[in-house]
Amino acid sequence: MNIDLHGKTALVTGATGELGRVMARTLAQCGAKVAIHYHSNKPKAQQLLEEIQAWGGTATIVQADITNEASILEMKDSIYAELGEVDIVVANAVVQYTWTTILEQSPEDYKSQFESCVMQSVFLAKAFIPAMQLKRVGRFIGINTECSMQNFATQSAYVAGKRGMDGVYRVLAKEVGEYQITVNQVAPGWTISEKERSAELGADEGYKQGVPLKRRGEDQDIANAVAFLASDLASFITGAYIPVTGGNVMPAI
C-alpha cells in the first residue's frame, strides 16, 4: 500500500522553513504537484523548486503574506494559473519571535501569533475550500505543536495562537465534512531538521528522557504524517489533533 497523490495539487505555506521544505519534497515524491510558498526567502524557494524538478516533479513557487487576505487571494490566482485548483492545503507558516514571560512579552507578539496561526487558516479556508466543496473532496491540514498541550513558561503567545488555531480546525471539520473535505492537525514535538543535523546535539538529553521513545523525531516523520493525511488512506479521519512526538504528549479522552 503506497501513498499516491498523482493528480493532486498541494500548497505548503512556509515551504522554505525547516519542516516545510521536507513536507513539500515528500508530497512531490508522492506524485502531487506542489505550490512552494515563501514570504521573503525566494532563493530557498527557487532551490527547492529546482530540486523537485530535477527528479521529475512538478512545482511552482508563490509569494504571499499569509497574514493578509488579499495577498493569499493573489497567491491562489497564481497557483491556479500554474498548477490548477488546490486539493491539499498545508498551513505550516508561522511568524517567528523571541519567547519570554507573559509580563515581558510584547503585545505585538500575541498579534503576530494570532494572525499567522488563526487568521492564516481562516484566509486559506476562504480562498481554497469553496473549490473543494464543488468537487466534494479535499484535504486541509494545519501544523500545530506539542506546546499546545504543554503550556510551559515563556510559550504563551505561541500557545495562544496555536490553541486558537485548534478551535478553528475543529469547527471547520464539522462545517465542511459533508463535502468529504477532511480537516486535521499535525503537532510536531521538538524535531530534528536539516539545520540541526549539521550541528552538535547534546542539549536535548533532558528532553529525550521525557519522551517514551527516548529520542527526538525527524523532519521526515512530520512530513510522513502530512502525506498520510493528504491521501485517500486518511479519508475517514477528520477533526484530529495528531501529535508526532514519540509519545511526549498524549491527548486523553
**What is the CATH class name?**
Alpha Beta
Class by SSE composition: alpha/beta
Distance between the termini: 30 Å
Main β sheet profile = 7 strands, parallel
What value does the Rg take, in angstroms? Answer: 17 Å
Average pLDDT metric: 97
N-to-C series of helices and strands? EHEHEHEHEHHEHHHE
- CATH homologous superfamily annotation: NAD(P)-binding Rossmann-like Domain
GO molecular function: oxidoreductase activity
Protein name: SDR family oxidoreductase
GO biological process, one term: bile acid metabolic process
Family: Belongs to the short-chain dehydrogenases/reductases (SDR) family.
What keywords describe this structure?
Rossmann fold, NAD(P)-bd_dom_sf, 253 residues, oxidoreductase, alpha/beta, SDR family oxidoreductase, globular, seven-stranded parallel beta sheet
Describe the secondary structure blueprint for this structure:
Blueprint: E1 9-12, H1 20-29, E2 33-38, H2 42-54, E3 59-63, H3 69-82, E4 88-91, H4 107-135, E5 138-143, H5 147-150, H6 156-176, E6 181-188, H7 194-197, H8 205-209, H9 219-230, E7 241-244
Parallel strand pairs: 1-2, 1-4, 2-3, 4-5, 5-6, 6-7
Helix pairs in contact: 1-9, 3-4, 4-6
